[in-house]
Amino acid sequence: MKIEILDTTLRDGSQGERISFSVRDKIAITEALDELGVAWIEAGNPGSNPKDLEFFRLASSLKLRHAKLCAFGSTRKKGITPEKDGQLKSLLAAGTEAVVIFGKSWDLHVTEVLRAGLDENIAMIAETVAFLRERGRTVIFDAEHFFDGWKANPAYALSTLKAAAGAGAGCIVLCDTNGGSFPDCVARGSAAAKKALAHLASPSGRGASAKGTGIRIGIHAHNDAGMACANTVTAVEAGCTHVQGTLVGFGERCGNTALAALIPSIEIKLKKTCLPPGKLARLTELTWKVAEAANVAVPDNMPYVGHQAFVHKAGMHADGILKVSRSFEHIEPALVGNSRHFPVSETGGRSAIAERVRKIDPSVTRDHPLTVLLSEKVKELEAAGWQFEGADASFELLVRRLIAESQAKSSAGAKAAYKPLFKILAYRVVSEHPTGSSIACSHAWVKVLVDGRDEIAAAEGNGPVHALDGALRRALVHFYAELKQVRLLDYKVRVIDGNEATAAKVRVLIESTDGLRSWSTVGVSDDIIDASRAALVDSIEYKLIIDNEAGGTGGKTA
To answer: DSSP letters of 351-411?
Structure first.
């Protein structure tokens, strides 16, 4: 049976600290999740705030191909009938095919938090589910705090599931709401729930098993003990066929099951289908798309889709991967739309360096003289404070410069890999801090040479590096118009040897973008401005060379 995925990024994910979605963000995330092919998107509580209400109004016109929207809410309030509950009315007004209803399954919550009788809670669950089913909605029942409730009072916890199932719920979801359960508890609790519901026939329709085959059982795990993915896999192995989580993993407190880290394990390792054919290969791309809309970063070490998921830094690992990929990788990166990467460092080894160089010159091998030279050069430079692991563009320029040097000595070799496109003849940076003024100002002056023509430009900035960057690009834009699109994304300074105090050598890392791609460069010097200059020059040269090779403008203006 297919594992049904419900993504709750827009509901549970929005409860994460510093997460705030605009209606436009929610629409973008909905479209990305539909593109991935999840079955359900839990889009929010229309009765809780005007933003969710507006989203449901706009979302009704979306042409979703794979996913169905769910509205989310609670069982009726105690002491009233469902017909008089305003929240239930708002769930119906949302117009979604399915409604996710949460109800208490831990007796502690019933008596101490809800302050209701145990029988009253059972009635609240059954009446709410029946009310929604009678009005044509598929009901997914979230048994809140199920595993804590099952440990405390198993008979009562199971009775809440039976009440929801008996009233017509198509799916019963076992929730580890506090996120503190371990896989052994989840396995036993899931088995108990499956046994308790086995004799009940499920209503037909989305979110339910075929009639007569039993209720679909689901899992909703939080990550407070770092067990969310493990608990979800355990529940699936125990028979759960409905899985809830958030794609990137953010959510209340420590977050929810990270679906991007879970779906490949279910599909590739457990051999169970979660997504439509071909969608798994887009997982990395769409996870990053959702993260961007949410204004969060995908953790670099996130399984399957993170930047570091298939990074091989150790020389022995890189050598092994290039010979037999499965020797140091549990799956092929392309299965999830990711790619392997060999960061260059003094510990990386020649195999990793050769693999990187082959992107420029395919003839290079592990034992090629250029590889040997580069290996020694990298060790020499890293001993002097340089670091290419986070500066791929600077390493590529180093490769191109060494190839150019070897070509200068011999006519053999690859097509010209490097030609300096400009030269800084002189530059000056001045920072002013007028007495009695809180405003500081920096000025930079640069003179560049391009094909025998020189250009002088000046700029003002919030600091010396900002001013230098502005002056350099202002001078060069006369020759290279494409530099108008380049801007700095990040700027980091690292003191290499703190024992030298203010005379210490510094390493500057710069990340730049042209709006389509980003790249990182490095500079090292005793002078922070000169280190910044080196990184800036590499950043601009890399942009011009790559544009030229890609067939872009990459050349001088008239």
So the answer is: HHHHHHHTTT-TT--TTSHHHHHHHHHHHHHHHTT---TT-HHHHHHHHHHHHHHHHHH-S
